[in-house]
Amino acid sequence: MAWQWKEPEFVWFRDVSPRDGLQAEHVILNTEDKVRLVNQLAQAGVPRIEVTSFVSPKWLPQMADAEQVMTSIERKPGVVYSVLVPNPKGAERAIATKPDEMTVFVSASETHNQKNVHRSIHESLEGFHDICAMAKPHGITVSAVIVTAFGCPYEGIVPLSSVLELAERLQDLGISEIALGDTVGVANPKQVAQMVQAFQQKLPGIQLALHFHDTRGTALANLLAAVGSGASRFETALGGIGGSPFSPGAGGNLSTEDSVYCLTEMGISTGIHLQQLLSTTQFLVEKLGHDVPSKVFHAGGKMIPVNAKN
Amino acid sequence: MAWQWKEPEFVWFRDVSPRDGLQAEHVILNTEDKVRLVNQLAQAGVPRIEVTSFVSPKWLPQMADAEQVMTSIERKPGVVYSVLVPNPKGAERAIATKPDEMTVFVSASETHNQKNVHRSIHESLEGFHDICAMAKPHGITVSAVIVTAFGCPYEGIVPLSSVLELAERLQDLGISEIALGDTVGVANPKQVAQMVQAFQQKLPGIQLALHFHDTRGTALANLLAAVGSGASRFETALGGIGGSPFSPGAGGNLSTEDSVYCLTEMGISTGIHLQQLLSTTQFLVEKLGHDVPSKVFHAGGKMIPVNAKN
Fold it and tell me: According to its UniProt record, which protein family does this protein belong to (chains A, B) (predicted)?
């Protein structure tokens, strides 16, 4: 495979640790700590934050305080605060809290969609139609995540053409921001480059984001392949926490710190202050009561020459 | 930074776990287990193996049985069995065991070379001159590793020009196989691509290999950037074990399993059978008595659809 490597000058990160990360944790953070996490991410310069999920507390007790979190955070100007909504009922709750963006999700494979949300892909899309109609009068953007876009734990390989077709159907609903999720961590850099390039060629109107899991250690290499193909939007989680409770074999999310460190060293801007971000990781680790996978959190971002310590 | 991505069809791995890996461990494997490790790596298809180090047992008691290991392994035809030699005295011991290759090492920065081997770079090169002269009549290749090639824990950034100049001096001694070591794990993918491309342009006669440490999570992304620049030789360690005892802040080596998995998924051949390799990791973990960083060892190489298990 040969292509012209061309990286963007700026990469936008959406940190999903307050939602995708915390929902996979056994420890439930209290509302105040969730609010501090979101506020500290914004202060560190993270331009997009997935704050919470308006899923039923029956399914995810970790997110039962979605309203309180959304109405207690400080809204830093310029930051996009988004929330996950599984259905029109969740969207109704979400809209009352005035998010900048609501995110819906659908699987690239029928089996995973059934197991995940007990609906067909077609039924999911019908729900999105209603959510888009509800969001419009409030000026709230609707974005989508296509989960299992690079492979499904039930169906195996997902053809690129299915992902493009599903994205086109989302675009027809008025959704132009789409994230592709490698839910179980089976994407490889070549597949990622091909996917990004296919979207650029066939669906240039879509603002594409990528969301990788580090199940097999490939997440940062996948981000790099996407960046080298011109992709500039990624979803990552502080500390590398996360993993889907409904996707067998899913590992943690790509870590925001490790991604920001690597891109910054490459001379690509992210607007994020790494040291401030690492202080936020320290806060998160204290509240979770366990260590996190991020390597840069442990090693530190900058190599400090040993002699300089003397 | 823009360049034409062009990956090789075949990538050669040298597994350094029996030497670079085991020398960083507190547990000392017995000779029989070391021999089994080397033989199993060869059986799994690893084409190049760093078997041991002929360093003084005073410095590295882990390698005190270097002669016994070298003379006890089965020599699989086609596999290159190499040994590390720190000086002419080590080379003399090594030659008696008939390795295919002897590897010498020198730091890209004076301070690290002094701290590592208590010699100036110039003095190290003088020793290599003698080692090359000793190796020649026996038909043994001498290769070199330039350690701290991407950054030094004492001096910080190492200029690309210094690395090229040192490589040229090694080439003048008759050493044409050179590995660049990111000893403390500070390389970034852009720097790696620039380094590989500079070698291709300025020193095309050198067979370049790269050796990454995953201190900051960038090792596989660095390998990918090198592969995309046309590099086809890497040094990795089974399980991702290793890290230099004499380099403050060094993390483990890039894992052979994770690298082979990723490249195989990309359609790049390595000649290595992943499942056999993972059985060898299982053996290594049992002998070391602790877990290893490799992600593919934990997740498995192939995504097995859940339904297939029913």
Answer: Belongs to the HMG-CoA lyase family.
